[in-house]
Amino acid sequence: MTNVLVCVKRVPESSGQVQLTDDAQSIDGRYVGFTVSDHESCAVELAVQVAAATSGTATALTVGAEEAVEQLRSVLAVGPTAATLVETDPKALGPADVAKEIAAVVEAHRAEGRGHDLVLLGNDAADSGDFQVPVRLAYALGVPVVTGAKTVEVSGDTVIAHGDAPDGGTERFEVPLPAVVSVLEGGVAPPYPTIKGRMAAKKVQVETRQPVSRPVGASRERLTLPPAAPANVRVLGEGPEAAAAAVDVLQELGVAR
Hints:
27% of the residues lie in helices and 25% in strands. By secondary structure, it is α/β, with parallel strands linked by helices.
């Protein structure tokens, strides 16, 4: 039996026009809808598959604002049977903060007798591009990690992950449970909720937890491009009469003698 925790994030829909906040440090989501990324949708499908194949459970988790319950409900509609929200301001969080909060939930659930053998996440965040959370989480938990997996299965006490190799082939990794695996889209088809699934998701009591520590933030730097240097134009003349002036310029540049 493998109990799986799958982590998702509330991110803006990329199909609409994406605008940045005034400080250019995050996405202004006032005029867009929200969803979970394709990487995470595939992670949810793999979590459900592993739980079903091993007679285990699949639990969804997100760290974010109260509105992120909407995304948890959409995940619950496709298979997981429980969900946890760590309610906090997502704009104040960096990758280290998110990893710490997920690790705290894993430890708390273990202490409560409902531990997770496998934690699945999207390979990187669809909005901020952060890809540090899986590795930081594994380090915090003291467990092995595989990143960039396309498929995941469990055999006994071992998780087997396949991903794309640099040479175009396939890589296979086997690590002992418990473990952390980050998922790239493409290995499985993202699930789509049915009406029955949506109705069932509305009845699930979402567990709400508070952050365990003060966030340190993302520590991002805003980079700006300097204005282009003005171009100086020097008219040498027209036709054959300009040849002598052109030679003079080439000699000045050291190109001709």
